[in-house]
Amino acid sequence: MRKTTILALGAALLFTSSSFDAPEKPKGWEPLLDKKLSKWRTFESYRHKLGYKGKQPTDAQGKPIPPIGYDKNEANVFSVVMEGNEPVLRISGEIYGCVFTKQDFANYDLKLKVKWGQKKWVPRLDEPRDSGILYNSQGECGVDYWHSWMLSQEFQVSEHEKGNAMGDFWCIANSTADIHAAYNPTKDTLKYNPAAPAVTMGRGGPGFCQAAANYESPAGQWTELELINVNGKSVHIVNGHVVLAVNNSGAVINGQRQPLTHGKIQLQSEAAELFYKGIMIKPIDAMPAEYEKYFK
Fold first, then answer.
1. Helix (H, G, I), strand (E, B) or coil at 52
2. Which of 38, 75, 182, 197 shows its CA 20 to 30 Å from the CA of 278?
3. Rounded distance, CA 3 to CA 1, Å?
4. Hey, where are the domains in the chain?
5. Under CATH, domain 28-295 is a member of which superfamily?
6. Which tens digit of pLDDT belongs to each residue from 133-189?
7. Does residue 197 contact residue 267 with C-beta atoms inside 8 Å?
8. What separation in angstroms does the CA of 202 have from each of 177, 187, 207, 270?
9. Could you tell me the pTM of the whole model?
10. Nearest alpha carbon to residue 226 among 90, 135, 101
């Protein structure tokens, strides 16, 4: 009897120890990152040079150079390291491109953490570190200015410098959206302001909008990002603060505005080293009531 009790107690302690070692999956959330990047594909385009003007690079004879392509990992741009039991995605930034989900997503809450590395690359050696989460991504990679990404909307991941901040918005390729915004104090770009009139982004108009404020964590610390994306509405959240809201997500196709409400998720490689962890997604049916005020 005593031996059985000791064995049972030992098994219970072993089970408890193993439970603490394994990261617990939050209820309703699907982890997207593992050490094999099994839920993602990659695309690499070019090592862009200074003076790039949006045209496909050419060789010495003026012939267009093809991109490196899909499912290539030249220079080990995309890799996963383990911190304890947790996978961490490293994107070196050396070559422009992206890692993107194999699955198409609609109506979800996405959470992840990001931290900058030390390395920077041409052509952004003198620019803030920059990357982004591209959502509602559709079609082929390489249709944007940098010949690197899919049609999409961007939740910018950027150092707070030169007017950039975590949670800024960019139209990628021919995307469009409506954002409540007004010109910032220097009058050189739009800044998110929920009290301002809505401005149509893209479609020949402005393609960039600053986040309302900077809530990036101090250097060397993880910044928590959250993207809530439902039926053409999305909210950019940084360390728990709403910094921007996007409405009427769309794309201009054959001159007509079409809805852009679902797609793959891309994480950019854009001349700066950075790390992501805790990438997880949860399906939702509607925009949570606490955020509906941003769309009135």
1. coil
2. 75
3. 5
4. 28-295
5. Exo-inulinase; domain 1 (2.60.120.560)
6. 999 999 999 999 999 999 999 999 999 988 889 999 999 999 999 999 999 888 789
7. no
8. 7, 18, 5, 21
9. 0.91
10. 135
